[in-house]
Structures are given as C-alpha cells and as structure tokens.
Amino acid sequence: MKDRGRDCSSCGRYNHLDFSQYASFVFEPGNSGGMVLLPPERLVNFLAGNVRAAGGLLVVNEVTTGFGRTGKWFGFQHYGFLNSVTGAPDFIALGKGLGNGYPISAVLARESLAVAAEKTGFRYVQSHIDDPMGCRIAREVVSVMAKGNWVLKGSEMGEYLRSRLADIAAGNKYIKEIRGRGMMNVVMLESGVSAGAIFKGLLERGYFCGYSEQLSFIHLYAPLIISREDVDGFCSAFEQVLDIRDGS
Fold first, then answer.
1. Is residue 190 a contact partner of residue 225, using CB atoms and an 8 Å limit?
2. Which end of the chain is more exposed for a tag (fewer CB within 10 A), N or C?
3. What was the pLDDT predicted at 1?
C-alpha cells in the first residue's frame, strides 16, 4: 500500500476516533493472508502513537513476519514509532520461524505487564506448555541466525529477487505488480491469468511456491538461505512458464 503523504490527523477516516475507547492496537506487519499488503508507515505510526498516548496496549503478531522474514528480525521494525523506545510493543506473538520447523510458539511481553500477569495468578495451559526441548531448539535457532547474519542475507537476497522479477515484468504482460519485503514476496497476476497453471509449470521445473487462483497471485516465501543461483534458476523457470503461456 502506498503512503500518499497525507496527515492522518486531518483525514476524515481517522480524525474522529476517540482513542481513549480503544484497549489496544493489534498489528500484523504485512503478511495479510499471503497478499503482502504493507500498511503505510504514516498510518501505523499515527494509530499506534495515539493508542499508546491514550493508555492502550500495542500488540504485534509476528508469527509469520518474524525472524528475518521481512528483512529485519521483526516486521514491526519497519515502522518508526513501533521501533522506538517509547513505541516498543507491549506484546509480540511469535511462532513458525522461532522453531525452524519444530512446533513452538511464544509471547514476548513487556516486563511490567508480565509481572502484573504473574501477580494475578493467571495461568495458560496447552499441550506443550513448559516444553524444555522446544525452548532449547528456539534458543539454538536464534543463535544460529545471529551468528550466520541470516537476517541481513535474507534482506539482500529479497532485493535481488525483486529486481529479477521486475526485469521479467518489464517485458511481460501477465504480471500486474510485485510486492515484498525481505523474503516475503508476491507476484500479482493480471485478471484471467491462471495462477494454478503457472504453479504447475514451475513445479514441473523443480520449483515449489504458493499460489491463489482466486486472488491471482504467486506466493514466494523462500528460505533465508536461498542463494543467487537459486534465485536465477527460479526466475529463468518463471520466465519460461510465462513464455509458454504467451506461445513463444
């Protein structure tokens, strides 16, 4: 989504809001059901800042966007207010990348809120609570990612992937838009183009990706360890599939 430079406080959609009536601002930094719709920073900063000023909590869902997926450790770090001392989230939901395949989820909480929850006697119970193996794996995942500098590498490869896709799009009438951050990317197709057929063509060439026939997109959430050779191979296959559709 584009930030058109408007002042949100003067926008008729938002300037009537009474932020004292909102208990929290809950934010997912861009996955949007696989469509990679990236909320404008100006809007997010406005909403988060006003909720915080009114005494509300800031909650971020990083289950999909966390651990390098967007080119930073967490997706909220792309937003100035949330990535500041005064605007840091009160709660962050974690999962997926936290275990690198091992089923584990977690919640990061501001210390004062965690202490307050403990004092109330609050208890949360599910099948794998207090799982020492899961905790050990999560610690090792974070350690390996930090030592290997994989977040930065994923960010750089994401930029390279989008540049290659842009080159393909420049000479192809079937691509409507390319959106992404880091290794969270989507290719939006023009109306009438079968995403399923493109998926099948890529699969036949050894590349597995996500897709939506209904929403006409090819979903590219490649691992952070992807190489330039991998990207080049995929883009070559993608171009071949599009050329076959064009009858070339």
1. no
2. C
3. 47
pLDDT reported for residue 16: 83
Residue type, 120: T
- Show the tokens assigned to 23: 């208990």
Spatial separation of the C-alpha atoms in residues 208 and 201, rounded to whole Å: 10
Residue 34 gets the label, from left (phi > 0), alpha (psi -120 to 50) or beta, of: left
The pTM is what? Answer: 0.88
Residues of the chain with pLDDT under 70: 1-6, 10, 12, 128, 245-248
Helix axes 228-245, 150-170, angle to 10 degrees: 20
Structure tokens at 228: 């330039």
- Dihedral (C-alpha) 165, 168, 174, 177: value to the nearest 10 degrees? 40
Q: Is the dihedral of CA 26, 31, 36, 41 positive or negative?
A: positive
pLDDT value at position 4? 58
Residues with Cβ within 8 Å of 245's Cβ and at least 6 positions away in sequence, in order, are 174, 193, 197, 198
User: pLDDT at position 34, please?
Assistant: 84
The residue assigned the tokens 């005064």 is 86
Contact predicate 61/98, CB 8 Å: no
